[in-house]
Amino acid sequence: AVAPALGKAIKDDFFARVAPVETTKLIAVQAAASSQVRTYPPPKLAAIVEALAAAGHCCLIFGLARHRLPLREDLKRVIDLTGKTSMELATAMLSFCDLLIAPDSSLVHFAAALNVPTVALYGPFPGTARTRYYPLCVTLEAQRHCAPCFLHGDEPCPWAQRRSQCWSPCFDSLPPDLIVETAQRHLTRMC
Predict the structure, then answer these.
(1) Can you tell me the distance from the alpha carbon of 77 to that of 45, in angstroms, rounded to the nearest whole number?
(2) What is the DSSP letter of 130?
(3) Which residues contact residue 85 at a Cβ distance below 8 angstroms, ignoring those fewer than 6 apart?
(4) Mean of all residue pLDDT scores within the chain
(5) Rounded Cα gap, residues 77 and 36, in angstroms
(6) Could you tell me the pTM of the whole model?
């Protein structure tokens, strides 16, 4: 484990080197889950990142290269690390963050182990089944007639297929403004 003073020194050095402008908090965002059915829609996640950056926070985006978010090019408080970090490096960087926003994914569990406050986004799978013992995790669960459906893995959502869309429609019940508000409230409570 990194001693707290050393951890703070590394975090301060990180900010000095890569944070493009003065920020209030460092927020990690995982761009996607390992399966599309559990992934929050990227355009909506991009809106969340843009709103948090506009509020003065620096957002680090983690994920595979194919999970790149459709972000505006002029954002000053966003560091897109999709396709640029290993899981080990992403986890180490997560330990310096003030908050994580992520779908049902491994970083939610790593954040719990690292005591990083988290806003976890769950649709097809019940979040409380996975996060109930994570005291610093706020779990937002989809509210839809078919949720939770327990779809997991590569099985596509039948409701999404009927609507000719890629993302589970259960995430429609978790609008970006709700997630931004929850993140801001969680940050305030943790400070």
Answers:
(1) 15
(2) H
(3) 62, 93
(4) 84
(5) 27
(6) 0.87
The DSSP-derived string for 22-91 is --S-EEEEE---SSGGGSPPHHHHHHHHHHHHHTT-EEEEES-GGG-----TT-SSEEE-TTT--HHHHH
Mean predicted confidence (pLDDT) in 35-64 = 91
The span from the CA of 118 to the CA of 75, in Å, is 23
Cβ partners under 8 Å of residue 141, min gap 6: 122, 123, 126, 127, 128, 147, 148
- The kind and range of the H/E element at 138 are strand 137-141
Q: d(Cα 94, Cα 178) in Å, to the nearest integer?
A: 23
Query: Which whole number is the average pLDDT over 56-84?
Result: 88
Rounded Cα distance, 26 and 43, in Å: 21
pLDDT tens column, 94-140: 998 999 999 989 999 999 999 999 999 998 888 888 899 999 999 99
C-alpha to C-alpha distance for 123 and 170, rounded to whole angstroms:
6
Q: Is the dihedral of CA 121, 159, 37, 65 positive or negative?
A: negative
pLDDT at 143 over 60: yes
